[in-house]
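Sorry to interrupt, but I need a hand with the structure work. Could you add the entry underneath, on a fresh line?
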Amino acid sequence: MLANNTDEVIQYLDAIIAEAIEERSRRGFFAALYRQVTLKVKIGIKHGFFDDAARMEEFTTQFANRYLRAWDNYQKNIKSTRSWQMTFDAVQKPELLIVQHLLLAINAHINLDLGIVGAELCPGDKLQTLQDDFIKINAILSDLLEPVELVLGQLSPLIEILDKFGGRKDEIIFNFSIRKARQEAWNNAKILAYQTPDLQQAIIKLIDSKVAFLSRAIANPSRSFDKALDLIKKSESDDIVVIINALNSIVN
């Protein structure tokens, strides 16, 4: 189940979403959000937002294939990265907040997959030519932040409680993925781009271990958050289909 272009990426995501809706599965949460991001990037490619449209088409496709391959392997009980294993396992945990399910997948896909794809597509000194378009994706993700937060606020009315725990909720919930995680991914790409295949695999295992550690923190945050998370959970929609459809309706 690997895509050849962004149109096929969207088709595969549609299939995952449809199956998740039929099965009332939380795995549809990230697939729906990811479809919106892909649509937004696809629009950017079409309208000349990126320096190299053809390369960004390939980049977006190969990046999505990391997720598609991980999901396919999980279904077939084929060993995958620890980060994705933990993400897909967590789908069976109804006690997690919507945002926790999303963050687990965002963590695996950005903190692990993004740097790998950058290094694969632009090895060695070629990587530097990707930097401007890499930064432009940050702008697209930032544009999506407000509408995503609006949808999450409708689905989880008390999510604002997180504001009380050290700053704005977008900093707690999203900024690590949009700013810090993407910078970390770029740093990883710069390391991986200059390695032999064997060394790349060894480094990827180390990165995966680090990302899996963060996954555990997302799924099991500090006990000081317990009361807040319980309160937020009680206010959240538990209608999986409604949640998936809402997350899948951000980009018009």
About this structure: Confidence is low (pLDDT under 50) at residues 169-175. Residues 25 and 185 are 29 Å apart (CA to CA). The two ends are 26 Å apart (CA to CA). The chain has one domain: 6-247.
